Fold this protein.
Amino acid sequence: MAGHAVKAGHAVKAGHAVGVGCGGGRSGRLPLPKVMTVAEVHARFGTEEACREHLRKIRWGEDLERFVCPGRRPNGKPCGHTKGWGLAKRGLIECGECHHQASVTAGTIFHRPRSPLWKWFWAMYQLSQDKKGVATLELAKQVRVLPDGLDDAAEAARGDANP
């Protein structure tokens, strides 16, 4: 597709850029993203607030330009209104029409997490760093959570279990 003119409204094959050579034998493809260091990941996603802000920007845009209310009207139809405002203290977005309040994590894999978001972001970073992945127990140790079923054994080993 590289080197060919693309008319407006025509699709471009995923993973390819139009008329852009990236060198290194990958001519016509988008450049690989820069790999973040541990320090960069911690600086960018080290707090709950930073993670929520990142999710808000990628989901709804810098100024909520992609926000669409997920609320339902009394007749059961979706609201779909595109204007809203942030409720900073609660970390929610409120629809300007139906006043439904939406969390940035609602309807995503991060909905009602049992662990802080920064731990999930760290886990995603770790999983993306090695093509073989990372062992579940090693990742659990790094973020100080244990997979289901191991909590009781860990408590017993520490002497925290009730007899």
About this structure: Residues 1-23 have pLDDT under 50 and may be disordered. The beta strands are 84-87, 92-95, 101-103.
